[in-house]
């Protein structure tokens, strides 16, 4: 009788322990790794960019008198969108200030002379032509070509009363930093004012942020 009681007590203690062991086994409660968050190495989409630098006009607009080589400064603000990895479309506003001597009378007929400025709203198209990978096999450096057109308005109006159409194009190089949203670049652009036949060029470092 005593042996039977001891066996029964052992069963009472062992069965719940086996049950708990089954419930906590790896098969019943598999351990799963927490899903890792992944980020794009380079952000693309809606972007905002600024650029600026020296600009030059070979033969400034003029109806009469000399058209001397003119140096100046330009700045541009652009908002656009990336269409995949290769193409981008943007809208811009560009301003420039150019130096000219007292002998430059533009289209004023002698009523005004000297320095002038311009304001140009317009649109651009950019294409990434060639990408270069870094040591992590991520293409961060691109050679690109950009072209655009805009409506050029000049000041002072007495010196250059007529607006013009500006077209421009040129190559550039851009590096997408490890900060994901930011890229930096350098662009060389040739320009042409259609009505006046004015040629120019600019060298413009740029900074870009993609949302």
TrEMBL record:
Cross-referenced NCBIfam families: gliding_CglE
Leader peptide range in chain numbering: 1-21
Identification of the protein by name: Adventurous gliding motility protein CglE
Species this protein is from: Hyalangium rubrum
Alphabetical keyword list: Signal
